[in-house]
Amino acid sequence: MPQRAMEELLVITTGGTIDKVYFDDKSDYQVGEPQIGRILEELGVAFRFRVIPILRKDSLHITAEDRELVRATIASQEARHVLVTHGTDSMVDTARALAAIDGMTIVLTGALNPARFRGSDAEFNIGTAVGAVQSLPPGVYIAMNGRIWDPGKVRKNVDANRFEPAG
Length: 167
Description:
The protein is an alpha/beta fold. It has helices at about 35-45, 65-75, 90-95, 120-135; strands spanning about 10-15, 20-25, 30, 50-55, 80-85, 105-110, 140-145, 145-150, 155, 160-165. β9 and β10 (about 160-165) form a beta hairpin.
């Protein structure tokens, strides 16, 4: 049975590399404003979207309480299509924490390089996630490196800086 058309995409932002800003004077990255709204507007998407920024954290600092906040926020919404921007280091953990939510298609994505940087994978990953959230059945998924992953069967290979099958 084909899915009904997406009426509105709910976007939840948690921070991560996709939103990082580089400060030359500090030689340091900090999580800045969410970039996805700007990206979707610049790309001229043909659907409505609403962005709810929840966290501005590197995903290594996301706690169980933060994950519960993300879960509760998503569960309280009426949207059926949800895209979550998230840091890649603990994206799998958050995806697993969202697995109990029924009736929604939830796709987590992020970037291995900040969206503000030329050559970032952010736009590609967001595009993959937008396609996935519209075409997949309800459940929780990860969209990274041009693939859609089951959170229970994927891991981030830190050395190779990519997602791959968990083994």
